[in-house]
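Technical appendix A lists one of the benchmark inputs used to test multi-chain prediction within the project. The record comprises three sequence entries:
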Amino acid sequence: MTKKQENYLRAILSLFSMVFLLYSGTTLLKRVKIDFTEERLYALSDGTKSILAKLDSPIKLKLYYSKTAAQKGTEGLRVFNNHFTYIRELLRDYVANSRNNIELEVIDPRPDTPEEEDALAYGLRKFHLTETETYFFGIVAENESGTEKIIEFFDPAQKGNTEYELTKLIYSALNPKKKIIGVLSSLDVINEEVSPYVAQIMRMQGKSVQDSWLVTNLAREFHEVKKIALDSEQISGTDVLVVIHPKGFSERLNYAIDQYLLGGGKLLVFVDPAAISDPSVATAGGVSSSPDPGFAKLMEKWGIELKPKTFAGDKHLSASGRFDPNQPPGRLLAIMRCNQACTQGNDSPITGGLNNLTMVFPGALVKKDVEGIKHSALLATTDRGNSYTASGFQLNRPQILWRKFSEGTEPVVMAYKSVGKFKTAYPDGIPPDGKKEKKGKKAKAAKAQKKKAEHLMESKKESAVVIVADVDIINDQFAFKRSFLGPAIANQNSTLFLNAVEALIGSVDLLSVRTKGMVSRPFNAITAIELEAEKGTKDKVREINASIAKVQAELSQLGRKANEGNIAILQNVGLKKKKQLAKQIAGLKRELREVKRSGRERIEGIGKFFQLLNTVFIPIIVIILGIWYSNRRKWRMSQFGAPQEEKPVENKVLKSVGGEV
Amino acid sequence: MINRVCKELFWKEFSSYFKTPLGYVFLVIFLFGTGYLTFEPGRGSFFIMREASLTSFFAYIPWMLLLLVPAVGMRLWAEERKSGTIELMFTLPITIRQAVLTKFFASWAFISVAILGTFPILFTVAYLGDPDWGVIFLGYLGSFLVAGSFLAVGCFFSALSKNQVISFILSIVACSVILMAASPPVLDFISTFSPKFVVDVFESLSVLNHFELMQRGVLQMSNIWFFAVTIGCWLYGNMILLKENRAS
Amino acid sequence: MIEVKSISKSFDDIKAVSDISFKANQGEVLGFLGPNGAGKSTTMKIVTGFVEPTMGDVSVCGHSIVSDTLEAQKIIGYVPENAPLYEEMYVVEFLTQIASFREVPQEEIKNRVAEIIKKCALESVQGQIIDTLSKGYKRRVSLAQALIHDPKVLILDEPTDGLDPNQKAEVRSMIKELAREKLVLVSTHILEEVEAICDRCIIIGEGKKLFEGTPSELKAKSDKQRIDDVFRVITTGRPIEGVAI
């Protein structure tokens, strides 16, 4: 063999060994990883690990991914390929942490094979890529007894949720004993009367059917959710009671809640000074607020008060949007986007780590010291938040609210957790039952039965109440969004709900998994400028209104004088005044536009500045340095130009060249 | 291994980028290009997304490098061979391995300077918001490694042909292949003539997959391994080529 | 000092050099003669260590060019054909650079460069970019870089090719000057150059050594003392009147 052939052989061999090394090495070394993200997105959370550690029966996971089909698709499918790799690696971590209880199988279902049939039988979602190629991307979890749980499709856009979804899947496949959540509400939160199937048919017939709120469906994935009837006189058999928008409850019901809590029951209460999720608002108008005085009496004993017609606001957390389709979008005080600033203050597992909540007209809670009860704030505005009062038509005028609002100096609390021994709000025992009192034997028998259940004056053991001053937060409209796969979780509102429920019933493993997610990293600097510009706008608007009022007052005074005669002159003066006013207002409006424009321009200016900084600045420096360097070299070298130079001089110059090398 | 000649050669090569217009043209195009693309108005633009992360910045880096690194790499050996200075180089007391590695690292250092020249973007995000520095660090590390892999490919093809244009085109083609190896259209093409196993192997060769993973903030050992092996093997090929055809 | 031991080199199927051996010592100017493409350059490249021989070895002051390449190369100064240089550099810069490559001690570099510039009469162009220099100056810069580390062996591949008569004369006198303390290998296809500067000459044709001896021996083979007649007979094999081999 000649040397040349040998070299070619070596080249080919090295090419093959490179491919081999790359393939085997990257496959083997995937497991060793370092997570650089602040949120530790790529490491299993403690909650998952704890759930996995508690596994005591085998679970089989079948990950269906149409890899072959995906490789034939478009560039867009690369995202899915990557997401698949991510999920597969994540699942391998699960297996590694499961003490051999989890078995993972990765299946590539080809069209018209038994695998595809299986996938369809399990209920995984099927997509058609081409006429022949179908696409699956889901997972089946099977437990010992053959129960199957599935995730029908993984959406790469929901990457932050993946671990939670998987842990949930395993958790639900484990089939532990379910806790019971009782839901009590003045709104149609749960609709048990109609099964989904019947609802479907009714909808097809054009009838409107009220579904249960989606948060309750989410809770159903782990727990049993049952509706507590509004005419209940005693509440029992639930691990936690969720009270949503308490208003119009009978005294008996309020009493039952009171006694439930004193008996050691846990309460999660959603109250709201203005619940826009109440369908009656849409039809009849007005404001739907809770608690009513009856329930407020209970809350008073807990040491928490919701100020009526008062709302928590914070310009720095306000969302932008529009109330009225005819108006340009602007910042809305009513819609509050809570970020990490709202939950930073507490280390409760309920809100700790949450950074993306949407609240609508949240109320302001005030605590009052009650002996034996400890309050801790779960949600609050920033330091610059404040509460404001508004009623009636004002609620529909975002500009009015915005102008009315003045920044505060300390956070307004929108959710409290109260723990301790509570006292009854009914020291006199069972309240009389109004009209039912005189009913026949049946009622008497019931009453006699109730008498048996002893009346509690005070909690025997510690209990807990979580109060959130917004009902809309858990409504579908604000907690979910439409996606092509049906309703999807829009933010962490539902997380807050589930966290609160689970923290109260004491299963906290899922909490830490759930709170993991992407931290939003907004441009704080830009937001600050926008708010400052808004402030300027506000001052100008106030000025305009003041001058309008002033001129109007003058006009009416003139009008009064007119009664005394010389109408013609006065009319003239009035016209003049009006003209003057119009001019003045036009001037002020111009100034207002100016203020708005200058704010916008400042932001645009910052954008331009950074664009220039990042595109032109460094290249120019590079060019300048280049010219300088080239000239310096030229100058140095020109020192060598003259051969007549004396030796010492030449040496000196040479020294500098030597130094450069 | 690293002797004085290596050090001197390193500085000579590194400074040569600043002694010819090529280096400046590269720097200006690279820095202007990445900046422009990052801020380019449109969907996904940095300023419009209002997200204090460099996702929209790093998304363009591999493509800028794809275009520009072969331009840096093409001259490394092709020029020396064309002008005959390779005879000077290899009659100096330096081995082929030392020369290849030194030249590679000098050019890599130059490209790294170009990448580091994007530092105003760091001030930008730091001023505007509260970025995740760990993720950004990893993004930069990934950029360096992608540049290194492309450069190693460029070195190889530069040693293959005396003609700089040919070596430029060949290395752009090769770099695009390893950049987009996991792209479904490419895999589809591969699968038309090779078995599934080969397709899987091919998919594992993708630079973009590894880069995207790093840019999202997770560093797997396999990323490091991938880039190290890629760079190592192409440079090894470079050495063999030079040994074989430096004199022709 | 230099011992070439039956070296051969083939590129693909073409034998560029086959089985050439010779010896040379300090103070000698050894000329390589031969038509273009005869293998002169390849032989020289093998001696410098730039090309690996397919077979055979070269010993430079006892260092094998194949197994002890770097040590052998330290002893050699080499002016390649057409004098390739890093053209974007300034003359002084370039020589300083080569000096440091050649491991001249840092503190001596500046003196050495100045010395060599003087020796090669480059003072007037030392501050210029090499690219802008004339051919003659480039040749001198190339010579200067070959001498910067004061090598014992100097190898010049067609050093006068493409120069005007004055420049040729200058280069020749320089070679003679250098030969006093060094071994100089010169390849050329210009016959009068051999007479003018070489102590000994080797004629190569089609990769083989055809003649080795002094220029006067070569000359003596022709009745008319015509060296080019002899050269043609030796390299082409065709007889010419008055030449006996």
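Chain A has 20 helices and 22 strands. Residues 526-638 of chain A form one domain. Comparable benchmark entries are summarised in Table A2.
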